[in-house]
Amino acid sequence: MDAMIASALPWLIAFGAALALAGAVFALWQSLRTAFGAATPGAPDATMELTSDARATLIDRKNAMLRNLKDLEFERQVGKISEQDFVKLDALYRQKAREVLEQLDVEVGPWRTEAEKLVKAAVAKVKKDQPKPAEAEEPKLPPERAPQLKCPKCEVVNDPDATFCKKCATRLIEEPAAPASEEKPA
Ligand SMILES: [Zn+2]
């Protein structure tokens, strides 16, 4: 009896882990739905009911599969079936068990996708609501101005193409050929 349980234990653990994962994903999805108040199209409560029924069926099948594996092990131990038959049936039951696990996984899939969508939407919303400091504090460069000539003597700003200061008549552009003569007293 102990040996029988021991041989089934790895399978029990594997099933348990798979169910725990499925449960965790489902719980996450539900909590997200509640937290973000998202009305998720295509996933009304009626669908949820059906889904949990389907889950119950799968869990029943999983339990039946475990019983089959235990019975098989027992039958081999008491010599009721040949080693050859045991190997064959054991492989069959394990294949069925895998199918059940796959179905459980497929069933969880849409919830996981839905949960990911909700998280993405929530993150996008948070990002949108936040002000962008980089944009607000962008330094404003002064508009490009035409270079102006400032008279070195009276500091009056003259037109860029001016040769003499419009106020004090000081020469603003040095004449290449002539020696400096702009320091004449006014
Ligand atoms: Zn001047």
What features would you describe in this structure?
By secondary structure, the chain is mainly α. The chain has a domain at 23-127. Helices cover 64% and strands 2% of the residues. The chain is built from four helices and two strands. Strands 1-2 form a two-stranded antiparallel ribbon. Strand 1 (149-150) and strand 2 form a beta hairpin. Helix 1 runs antiparallel to helix 2 (45-77), helix 1 packs parallel to helix 3 and helix 2 (45-77) packs antiparallel against helix 3. The model is unreliable at 39-47 (pLDDT under 50). It binds zinc ion. The site of zinc ion has 8 residues, from loops.
Topology (SSEs and partners):
Layout: H1 2-36, H2 45-77, H3 83-129, H4 133-136, E1 149-150, E2 157-158
Antiparallel strand pairs: 1-2
Bound molecules: zinc ion (ZN).
